[in-house]
Specification:
Layout (H helix, E strand, L loop, with lengths): L1 H27 L5 E6 L4 H15 L3 E6 L12 H19 L2 E4 L11 H14 L3 E4 L7 H14 L19 E5 L13 E4 L4 H8 L3 H4 L17 H22 L1 H8 L1 H6 L3 E6 L8 H7 L5
Helix pairs in contact: 2-3, 2-6, 3-6, 4-5
Length: about 300
Amino acid sequence: MIKNIITLLVLISTVFLLANNNAFAQTENEDKLRIIAFGAHPDDCEIRAGGVAALWAEQGHAFRCVSLTNGDIGHFGMSGGELALRRVKEVEAAAEILGISTRVFDIHDGELMPTLENRREVAREIRNWQADIVMVHRRYDYHADHRYSGILVDDAIILVEAKFFAVDTPPLPRNPVYLYYDDRFERPLPFVPDIVIGIDNVVDKKRAALEQMPSQFSDKDSWTYGRAENVPEDEETRMRLRIDNLMNRNVNIANMYRENLIELYGEEIGNSITYAEAFQLSEFGRQVSFEELKRLFPIID
């Protein structure tokens, strides 16, 4: 009898300690954010938000890139399952460098449609990630997959709170903060940044992550070079030229939105930033002030 009582007390103590440990872990992680960034193809998220992804990851936040198509026609020398599997491996290698997670939907490149089932899948992905922040392309873009990625997330974002939509996944307790990547399309509405983040501290990580994607940036038959003239013979040269071009976009963002950087970082640091990424707050998600955006984003100093 006494032995049974002792055993019971030990079990109760163990359960109590485990409960306390779990409570401590929850308290400890309360300030950790969960960010999910959608792209049309395996490389879009990394190009548009790879810098802030690395910054958030370094601070212990959870960042996830999701490609809504498998990119299986994004090459001039190969296609289909072979290319899709290759591109999955490329973004997995990039994710390891950035310190994030990744997923690629099995939808053919060029065939993404804003269907009800795809809306459900996007809502499930946001819910399963328990996202505090969601990112995607705007719906104004040259590429149908980019446009439909924006439409799908636009249409899903309010439904992540709806208890009786996609009932196999629990709804989120509140609508996430919802942001768009930068772009240069002017019609019908130009991109207007609500926050611009310096990424100088992680620019080498972003470059290294993009270098994991030779199918896009260095193969002779890659999407970059497969239709170009005077292609450099050396693959290393091809990769360097293409990544330089991509990183120059971040230089242009910093220069174009210098006043935003100064507003966020102050004049001295704002003027010194070379590389930046810019984001626009969507009216479809939870509305927050500039001060709250500052608290949510990983700010370098």
